[in-house]
Description:
Blueprint: H1 4-8, H2 18-43, H3 53-71, H4 78-99
Amino acid sequence: MTDASSIRNTHAPIHPDWWSKSVAGVVLGFSLAIAVAGLFAWIGPGGPAAVNKLQFIMWLVVPIWLGVASVCFLFRSGRQAWLWLGCANILAHTALLAARSPLLH
């Protein structure tokens, strides 16, 4: 039988890409949060000029950002976190540009 102390020491150590995941979550997560909040501002009810919507959008950025920064540690590697969050940023900012397009208004 093995004791509990030897079982605790068999866990894999924190990989060096922990920093990469953290930076991806903070940098790309902020960019993604800004894009998603902007999408809500433009597509949401009343458009960007709705009463009190500016304050709500401002406060919406932080929970989205923290959610992305928390989820980024579920990726297998830092490279995968950068790729997925980078693609999500490209899609979100493209959708934001499309939502602001004069063709839709």
